[in-house]
Amino acid sequence: MKEAEIVATRIQQQVNDWARKHDIDFSVTFGLGEAPTHGDSFSSLLEQVDQALYHSKSSHTGGGLAQAQISQIAN
Questions:
Q1: Spatial CA neighbour of 53 closest among 25, 31, 27
Q2: Backbone conformation region of residue 65, classed left if phi is above 0, alpha if psi is from -120 to 50, else beta
Q3: What is the bridge-based pairing of β-strands 29-32 and 64-67?
Q4: Eight-class DSSP state of 61
Q5: Of the residues 18, 19, 30, 45, which has the fewest C-beta atoms closer than 10 A?
Q6: In this structure, are residues 47 and 28 in contact, taking their beta carbons and an 8 Å threshold?
Q7: CA–CA distance, 30 with 12 (Å, rounded to integer)
Q8: Tens of pLDDT along 23-75?
Q9: Using CA atoms, how far apart are residues 10 and 4, in angstroms rounded to an integer?
Q10: pLDDT value of position 23
């Protein structure tokens, strides 16, 4: 996940720099997750990442980055 955060942060910075240079109010928001930590199927992983993305959008202006919560996988 750390590598994904680094890449997402670099993308955000590049987009922010470009938007500032062109005087455009624009930002990028990311929700991050990985299998099986955040979901044991594609749909559960996608749901967790979507929730992280929604949280990031609602709590950050100018872009954001949020990790999915750890899924409670039934054994």
A1: 31
A2: beta
A3: parallel
A4: S
A5: 18
A6: no
A7: 9
A8: 999 888 888 888 888 888 999 889 888 888 888 777 766 677 777 777 554 33
A9: 10
A10: 96
